[in-house]
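Problem 3 from the worked examples.
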Amino acid sequence: MLKREDFYSINQKTLERYYTNSKNRKRLYIYPELNAIVTARPSKTVRQYLYTEFRVNGSFLKRLLVRLYATVMLNSRGLLAAKSVVVHTDATKDTLIYPCNKKYRVFDFDKNEVSVIGKDGFPTIDLSREIEFRTHNHADFIPGLIRSSEQGYSEVIIDGCPVARTGERMTSLCDKAFAIWNEYIAPSVREIPAADYAKELHDQFQVLKNSLQELNKQVNDSQLDQLWEQLQNILQASQDNVPVGLSHGDLQAGNIWVENQTDKLYIIDWESWKNRSTWYDRALLYEGLRRTDGLEQYSTCRDLIHTTVLMEDIIFRMTELTTLPLDYGCAEFTAYINTLCGGTVHV
């Protein structure tokens, strides 16, 4: 974020907008390497949460060094912080502010609540979609909302960690979460002729292209059009059906959490939900579609499943691009299309 945007200015404006009811002024300290904003003396609970969040897989020495680094930084009373910010706030030692890509998570461990708010200058459509999904979908694995508004929402802090941090247990926990998710979406799944689904996707593609042009998002249109035409022709020619139903849209090990005491699983971050093929979430969770190695695997295959997933992923990334301000995301999207075209120009 420090490279992509004027983070410190955005951070100041975001926190000033969030903390509007306090008369107290307090200095908070920013640790970019830990992605954390805290008071000078964060509580043991805050420190323990960050130790868990930044727990890494690997050798004992690597884990020890990461823990040591976090301990030194958080116990420096702000002396080792990259910067500080002064705002009207009632933040206490139990407060942890966690900047994300397009939103902020403000933890209050004393109340056991986390508030999620939009980042200043960024559209709030993702927050609205998250609230919409969680208002109308209720299950044990979907965290409930305490309250919500146009500004964001609040929820209970999950006493656990992402399954991405669970080492040898990660695969089995992902399998369990995927089985729970498949059972939940089963009533929504319907078989659609591939040619009909190709038309649905193409209509979405055209709308998004127009939106990017209106937003002056500079992407390689000719390369994108060539790739899309190749994929669309394959899907249109297929005589098979595509199973389409409710999709999470970002189902990966970092968005599946396991509760410490009970091993209960939660799936979080619902802003990308919509109807897609049932193949899409599987590709994200098991085949690393968002990683370079996984993407290259998909870019060199042209069967029905790979083609459908790639078309859905292009639409996902174009949608993401429309929710970022200025020219944010353009370079990454161009690199993504270049990667696909580098191995896929032959049909």
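Problem 4, a separate protein:
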Amino acid sequence: MARRRRKNKVKGVVTAVLVLAAIIAALFFGKDALFGEGGHVSDPVSGGEVQFHFIDVGQGDAALIRTEKGDILIDAGTNSSEEELQAYLDRLGVKELEYAVFTHPHEDHIGGADMILNTYAVKRVVLPDKEHDSKTFERMMDAIEAEKCEVIMATPDKTFKVGELTCTILAPISTAYTELNNYSVVIRADYGDTSVLFTGDAEVDSEAEMLERYRFKGTLDCDILKAGHHGSDTSSSQAFLDAVTPVHAVISVGEGNTYDHPKQEILARYEAMKLEIHRTDKEGSIVFTTTGGEPTRK
């Protein structure tokens, strides 16, 4: 009986110490030391689950695909959102990336690229074959060289896998666009029966080429569409949406942005198709999970 009382007493002391440590962590570092964004505990990936995180980086793009076998980052937000992006990844326990895809050289997509490359162990980088004369682009390329990352140039129909997740590059198809957005690397991610289309800032010219190449193969059809160009009217043509037929449209956009994104015309198209619209400016970071069937909002 005395041994049991001593054991219970020790257990009680340990519990008290853990609670005290949690309180101290919360006081010094805020609730994000204990919880993920929005106060929710960040669950690890297990049981054949795949997570699709559309991270709130303001007026920019950043998405993370999490699998049991490794993680994929698609874009890295703006220079000014680096700290928020790193905090989000750290809360999830991200240490390394199997692939980092930087869709095109605009600052709102590669602003945090150098931070990503310098902070996390990035095995491979996927890029379009397009350079840009900006300091942000130079910092990204310097970091790629310094970290000795394997560089994969995006070409249509090229695939890469992490575990049972398959990513297929659909664009860019041409090499002589006048608009830099059309060089965006477009990726279709498939896991079981779940498919997600990441479009970067691809505009109607790139969409038209994808339609010509893939329309009758069913390649564009997906469950979740990352809306092109933050919901701008330069993207999401009706013909493209008719081929994609998504259930969900995710718009990565900054609150009160000066571009008036997303455009009402595009929202009206989504609404007419009865899509479920998800916006980072109104909802913060958006997460879907799947075990290979219908994706669900976390």
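Solution to problem 4. The first helix runs from residue 2 to 29. Residues 35-297 form a domain with the Metallo-beta-lactamase; Chain A fold (CATH 3.60.15.10).
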